[in-house]
Amino acid sequence: MALTPPEQRLWWKEPLHGMEILWISIAFLWGLVMFGMMIYWHAAGDQNLSNEAYRIHKEEFVKRTEAMVAKYKVREVGDTGVPVVRPPAGSEVYMIGRQFEWWPVLEFQKGKSYRLHLSATDVQHGFSLQPENINLQIHPGYEMVITITPTRTGTFGVVCNEYCGLGHHQMTGRVIVVDK
Amino acid sequence: MAVAGTAAAPAAGAKGWNYRVCLETGLHVDLAAQKLIKVNAFVAVVFLAIGGLFGLLVALTRWQAVHLLDAELFYLALTAHGADVLLFWIIFFEMALLYFASAVLLNSRLATPKMAWLGFWLMLIGALVANVAVLQGDSSVMFTSYVPLKAAPHFYLGLILFAVGVLIGCFVFFGTLVIAKEEGTYDGSIPLVTFGALTAAIIAVFTIASGAIILIPTFLWSIGLISEIDPLVYKVVWWGLGHSSQQINMAAMVSVWYAIAAMTVGAKPLSEKVSRTAFLLYILFLQLASAHHLLVEPGVSSEWKIFNTSYALYLAVLGSMIHGMSIPGAIEAAQRRNGFVKGAFEWLRKAPWGNPAFSSMFMSLVFFGFLGGISGVVMGTEQINILVHNTLYVPGHFHGTVVAGTTLAFMGMTYAVVPLIWQREIVWKGLAKWQPYLFGFGAAGISIFMMGSGIVGVARRHWDINFADATLKFDYAPIAHLMLGLNGLAAILAAIGGVAFILIVVMSIFFGAKRDAEAVKASPTVTAGTPVAHTGSEATLKLPGTIILVSVFFLTFILYYFVNWKFLSDVWPLR
What we know:
The complex is a heterodimer of chains A (about 180) and B (about 575). Chain A has two helices and twelve strands.
């Protein structure tokens, strides 16, 4: 039994039974299929993260974001003072994650693509676009760039889903997608 | 057992180590090892009680209708919960298992008991120091303590001391294997359970190396000697500790499955060669799993992610799938020899479901595979991770592996270890019979409902899903509230099972009836298996039940895997 030394001293010479060989082969092939799926999706799927990332100083990222806000701000959200920015399709778009907000609010056009730059200025944050359910990890000092193409209109929440301090649960943001 | 009465024992006795002869197995149990097994297992159970309580508080806070703790206490409780159960409960218990699998099973004396005690005290002091740091309130950085969030220096120091203690324990284990071999206390190769424990100990060594590489600089950073730690480098190396330590648990848990199957129904591995090779795959490939936590990170290439997250072509998953067949197969083969040969499933229906060791083990096997295993592979797929990263799906997954899997298996092992090592009867047999079901179904519920709320996007480590204090309001789908309510109920069920376990164990080791030769004869803990054919594989018996079980598992796996790709294909295009 499993609690005593193997009954056959030369246990590595035991013959394998057909059922074992069959299951090991199936499990191995299934592993290859799953491995291949990830590569296949890079070729044929629409949801792949770019490997585009840069090291960036926090101040520099804030500066770029503020420049974008100054240029494309269209209004504020109610009386919160949070700017809503409507950048042109195809442009470079920035969002900062910091204790405890995602800033600013972005307004996109459905079906158009945007190069979204994400970075944090203090600790790590989790960019969680809901209910679309796109979840990315955002690091301070690293700028992540993804090209995103909204396919549904509406107001989407951005939640922070990486614990970032005692105000973590207050940290939200917003992405608005309109028809035109 | 075959080793009873080997010639080595008197010689060893003459060398001056103290042992008793086990009434059940005839093994010579080193008293120093026995004492170490007792203290490590006892301290483990104490940390299970503390960490479990914190877990219940967390679940009752996330249940929005109850919302028990305030935000600050919630994040404190969550940090304590992670450290106390994921590290301290499980690893103290694993130390007990290492000493059991080496000294006791090999019929040997323990190497350097004094060093083992040093390791024990370092672990205990470290665990207490880390707990104090968390309870003081300025170290609510979660179990992962991602920089640049900063905890109090003694939080890191506690973890470092604990890790050094664990390392010492691993080397005592290795030393014992060497002594046993030198002194010829057993014949041939080490038993499969010891082989599994060896796997766990080897993984533990490089896991702790990763921990040292990152926690020591982090400690120096927390006291101001280092100015900055790169958050991405921290994550890559920290998860060499964080994820790999779960692989220690997995190797230890699989060993426990084999051990309990052997003790309760006399199961013998279908094939020693296959089972040992599967363990070997763990050693070679599990360490790559650090990548599971870096799939949506900036600055990591897709090639790196794909190779590492799949453990190089899913070879570690292959190891688990092998165990997933060979353990039920071994049980079926043993039960068929025991005379339960009708149909495909008489062996399973008439298994000893009233024996808490057996029921814990079998539920652990099923829950680990179906809940923790499948979900882990699916969410560890590079692109699918976008859907679930840092949502409650992640804790849902690892409560399937570590709670419904490992913790339940270790509970089952405790029901076997108390009679063997403490030589006491388990008290309250009626309650003990039900305990694994209470805890097991509770834990499975926790796993399922957290995964459910993760699928609708609910963030993990989050105090308020209503976002009452946020400037920009947001609501999750209403089903999130239902899921978290059910999660709270499941946590209560698991807590009842957990309290029952702790009471049974504590009452048994202090007040259980002493087991003398007659008691052992009346209710043996170790069922001697019927002698089996010595040549060829155990699988020469027909095992239709196992084939059906494995097929159901495999079809579920395939279906669930592709359903998630379908979900992903509906998300906004990203590139």
